[in-house]
Protein 1
Amino acid sequence: MKSQARRIVTGHDVTGKSVIFSDGLPPQDHAMTKQEIGADFIEIWNCPDEVPSLASAPDSEPSLRPFTIMPPTGHLIRQIVLYPASEGGEKTVMHRTKTLDYVVVIEGEVVLHMTDRSVTLGPGSVVVQNGTDHAWENQSDAPTRMVFFHINAEFSDELRAKLPDDLPLMT
């Protein structure tokens, strides 16, 4: 599986007509694309604003902003290719994020480990991740491609009071 993603960015010309601004691979300027880490993070788009402003054209290339695992504000979308153990992949550390995540499995198979159980996901599976303790693992013999849409969120006071403090909070 080749770790790349075609991205089409649309907008409007000076008359308001809809146009395609770019069509191709989004530029990547980070070190999270190596077999040594067991995964490729492919940055597609991000926006620091809670409510994005729609303009005729993007004012900059968002995939070239400094890399973060989770957005400190706003949202981001990325593809992640998890390698199998035979190619350097490992089970991620059990962690939680301060985000609402929508995760779609595109290709392959991945195991989602939760505190109470684990589930195996295949193509077309969708996970709605609500800031829960979790880990990912590719137990198959082939890479797995997933799309993650991360939205910055806040833990409610009620939930924060229940959460143990012993897990890393990915940021």
Note: Helices lie at 157-162.
Protein 2
Amino acid sequence: MSGAAGAETRLVLESADAARTRRIGALIAAVLAPSDVLLLSGGLGAGKTTLTKGLVGALGGDERAVRSPTFTLMVTYETSPPVAHVDCWRLEQLAEVLDLGLSEVLDDGGIAVIEWGEAAAPLLGAGALRVHLSAPGELAGERRRIVVSDEGASPRIAALGEAAAAAGLVAADGPA
């Protein structure tokens, strides 16, 4: 974990399988608050939807119901707080993010989990928790590297780091 006031704080986690990626999603859920935004990035098959399954399950939803919203663009899960799961992969213009109605979700205390989140970052990136997932094979070995970052000296990253260390999910070789 690294960071200083005014800088980005990062935590590098490691997952060898879908169950561990879902566990990391559950750990992230524990540090989110109503109206938070989670921006997910990574290539196809990197585990963005799998991580979202763990997050939705930890917030009281049925993780088996979680599917990538690539064609529907947004799905809302009845969790506590509600989760709007968005996929920006097919969006061509930044204005299309506004058309999804995420501001209403956030104003009502819901959490936005946005796959291909870099597309929404110019609108929703301030204060967002960012998660980059590497697909197995992008790195040496088959482990998936998950880098979680936040602005400043983040208490969310500190709390996540403690929980991830206790679960044995912190990468042994440091930042990516």
Note: The chain is about 30% helix and 25% strand.
Protein 3
Amino acid sequence: MANITIYHNPACGTSRNTLAMIRNSGVEPEVIEYLKTPLSKERLQKLLAALGLGACDLLRQKGTPYDDLRLGDPKWTDDELLDFIVQHPILMNRPVVVTPMGARLCRPSELVLDPLPDPQQGAFTKEDGEVVINAQGQRV
């Protein structure tokens, strides 16, 4: 069984859809609710390295203190932006999935299909009604 971790926010539909697609591949992932269990700066650094992204790429703007903190200002270094994410975990964009095949920020949720080592076990329809996987387990 594949070792898969999802950094998850259960209040987020994209995150719920991503988790459901992981489970539809027959795997029960390690679910880390990062708002309840915030990531350390060191863990965030490792996650960014695995994703191949800069800290600004991991920032979420909507529903966060992003604008109040003026995080769009180019003066902030990656190190400083990670400090903000540690202080305000809601700033971390989600969901992030780590599998043996790589890490991915899964926006939209179907991006999780690329690094999943196991195929989908059946049809999958997102919460909004969009069909992503057909009855044969193939991407639509």
Note: The chain is about 25% helix and 15% strand.
